[in-house]
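Hi there,

I know you've been waiting on this one. I reran it after we fixed the sequence typo, so this is the corrected version. Both the input and the resulting structure follow.
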Amino acid sequence: MKVLLIEDNQLLGRSVKLGLEELGWIVDLASDGEEGLYLAQNSTYDIFLIDRMLPKLSGIEVIRKMREARIDGAAIIITALGATSDKISGLEVADDYIVKPFEMGELVARMKAVYRRSIGKSNALLECGNLGINLNEQSVTINGDKVDLTAKEFDLLESLATRQNHVCSRAELSGLLYSFNGEPESNSLDVLLGRLRKKLQGATVEIVTIRSKGFMLRVE
């Protein structure tokens, strides 16, 4: 999962970034609204964690501009403003609203919940033929037998599986797998796809290359 965190409190921002990265997620960190909006417009993210009171552009303004630009991804407002009126106005634009201070476990649970809703899944399990993908546990099985994947391999499979019958471009997949300032080498995605295809032998799915367009997960 790839996350954009927009937080002007440097200590909190670094702490949340580190905590999410320890879970294997990719996190870009912006310190003001304008920088955050720029990253949202120029990379691809699954979830946006956005402080409400930001320099240059408020969190509400950032989300509204993202919606106007039809940028995909679930948005969670994180803020010290906990009044009912603040929550109501925040939830008019965001998918969830969490008040500081918060426990990391609660934040992660909320993120997983809004992500599942954003991809149209009410539970944590994706089933593609005989392939099972548990989003919460980040585990994969074929006919019930566990398949060992690296964090990047899981992210790639998740990106393809949550977009079944949709062609994912090379740029889109790279945007989800690597940080904004950490662009991969030109053949990194191909190497990753090759490893994943080998590990999925025996599954009733195929990662199909659509010439000049990208890749798609197809259930056989």
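Quick highlight: Residues 17 and 63 are 20 Å apart (CA to CA).

Best,
R. S.
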